[in-house]
Amino acid sequence: MVQFLMEHVNVPWPEWGGDDVDPGQKIAYQLERSGMLKGPLVPPGQAPFLATTGPGFFTRGVMQSLKRVETSVPGLAPVAVCPAEIF
């Protein structure tokens, strides 16, 4: 899990979030990368609004790594994420 986090730190969420990335954020990221805009969506050093909402990097990274480990390691017990009410 730590290796996964290290490989994805400082990599934009739309590049590795897969189906968990908000469609609006995917479009905004594609527009910015395409060069169709006159400049970045936000000044350098600041995150766009869409990137600052929802779970943070660590939470996103942990959940993505759990999903990927479960599908890549045969015989691993399934991962279940339960709401707080279960505990």
Structure description:
The chain is an all-alpha fold and 87 residues long. The protein is 45% helix and 0% strand. It has four helices and no strands. The protein has helices spanning 2-8, 13-16, 23-34, 57-72.
Notable traits:
mainly alpha; 0% strand; 87 residues; single chain; 4 helices
State the secondary-structure class: mainly alpha
Summed over residues and divided by their number, the pLDDT gives a mean of 75
In percent, how much strand structure appears in the residues? under 5%
Please, what is the oligomeric state? single chain
Rough shape?
elongated
Secondary-structure element order, N to C: HHHH
Q: Tell me roughly what share of residues is in helical segments.
A: 40-55%
Main pleated-sheet profile = none
Distance between the termini: 24 Å
Number of strands: 0
Which regions are unreliable across 5 or more consecutive residues at pLDDT < 50? none
Helices, by number, come to 4
What is the C-alpha radius of gyration, as a whole number of Å?
Answer: 16 Å
